[in-house]
Design a protein that fits this description.
Blueprint lengths: L1 H17 L4 E2 L11 E3 L2 E3 L14 E5 L8 E4 L4 E7 L2 E6 L2 E2 L7 E10 L7 H6 L21 E7 L2 E10 L8 E3 L3 E4 H10 L5 E4 L1
Parallel strand pairs: 5-14, 8-12, 11-13
Antiparallel strand pairs: 1-4, 2-3, 4-7, 5-6, 6-7, 9-10, 9-14, 10-11
Length: 205
């Protein structure tokens, strides 16, 4: 039994090293995913037991070298790190772009919105004509694909079209299902929104 425990621990440490971000050590999540009343909306509770524990919000040791306030997105491991400094980061589980919709690069947080309106791009409407009714925007709400918060990513060319945003589909965290945006559970995007500043650097790997 002790040998199995050692092997498991070594395997987990190896997975962290291979994730592409310089993290070491583990912490257990104490984050709350209870129901939240926010701006008049009642965000449903998320069943923690149905979320793989590595995707729960937690503070971890981090040695990436980036400045505090930087956001690092590891699309392979399905993690987003908010660098705290002092060798630590807050880590969130994320959902990423499905095959053919992945992207990598650097950007900055240009805008932050609470309960944003969602407007599907014309390319998405071409793929899914049923979304045409929202060409002028979907009102904020619990079923809005952007969830409770959105951080809008711009680069030197302007709006990238990509967002860090919430989602009502908590079961999609840890999977590649989006059209390129990075999605977090609503309780997590609220936490990230409260930490991240406009102008924050975002690196997507």
């Amino acid at each position: 039994m002790q040998l199995k425990t050692i092997v498991l621990a070594v395997g987990l440490m190896g997975a962290t090293v291979l994730s592409g971000c310089s993290t070491i050590g583990f912490s257990f999540s104490t984050a709350s995913y209870n129901s939240v009343v926010d701006a008049g909306y009642v965000i449903p509770a998320i069943p923690r037991t149905k979320i793989p524990p590595q995707f729960l919000r937690q503070e971890v040791r981090y040695e990436g070298g980036e400045a505090p306030g930087t956001i690092i997105v590891d699309t392979g491991a399905k993690y987003l790190y908010y660098v705290l400094g002092g060798g630590k980061a807050m880590r969130y589980g994320i959902g990423v772009g499905k095959q053919g919709f992945e992207w990598h690069g650097s950007a900055r947080v240009a805008l932050k919105r609470e309960w944003p309106t969602w407007t599907p791009p014309k390319e998405m409407i071409q793929r899914r004509p049923e979304l045409a009714e929202f060409r002028d925007g979907m009102d904020p709400g619990l079923q809005n694909p952007l969830g409770a918060r959105a951080l809008y990513l711009f680069n030197k060319g302007g709006d990238t079209g990509y967002r860090l945003h919430g989602t009502p589909e908590w079961w999609s965290i840890g999977k590649a299902m989006s059209s390129g945006c990075i999605r977090l559970m609503n309780q997590d995007i609220i936490d990230l929104y409260n930490r991240a500043e406009v102008g924050a650097k975002v690196v997507v790997r």
